[in-house]
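Task card 7
Instruction: Convert sequence to C-alpha cells.
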Amino acid sequence: MFEDDKREVFLSGEAYFKVTSNQQTPFIVHTNQAEITVLGTKFNVRAWDQTNKVAVVVVDGKVSLRPENVNNNKSEVIISAGQISVLDENGSLLNPVNTDIELHLAWLNREYYFQGAPLGEVLDQLKRWHDIEFSLPADSYAANRITVNLENKPIEDILDLISLIMNFKYVMNGNTVVFTTNN
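Output:
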C-alpha cells in the first residue's frame, strides 16, 4: 500500500514492474545502490545485494537510473524501451544500449539464459534459485564465460550440462555441489 503522495518500493533481488502513469506521483524503486524513477512503464530490475550491481531493462516507456543518494542530473541516465543500463560495482553508470528484452524477462517463465556470462555469475543465480552452495576446483574458473539455456530443468540436469560445458565432474553432498576437473 502506498501513501497518497508517494509510490516507493525497496528491492533486493529481481522484480518486474508494470506501472500505471501518474505525473504527480512518480513510482520510485530503491535498491542499496540505486534509485529508479518511473512515470508509467514496464521494466525489470536486477539488484542482488551480494553483487553491488543494478541492471535495469525497459520494456515500455522510459525510466531514470541514478546512484542512490545522488541528487544531480549528471549522475543519471534515461533508459528507453528496448534498452538496458547498469550501475556497476564501482558506482559507475553505463550508457543505455539496445538489448534482447526476452533474454532478461525469461526468468518470469522459469527460463534462464546466460550469454557469455561468467561461470561464477551462473552459479550465483543457481545458488539463489536452488538454495545450494558450490565449490570450484580453482577460483579462476569463476571468470570463465559460458552460454547456456536452463529452461526449468531439474538441478541434476543443470549440473550435468555445466559439467559437460566446463569439462567438470561433480558430487552433491547435501546442499553443496563440489566440482572437480575431469582429467
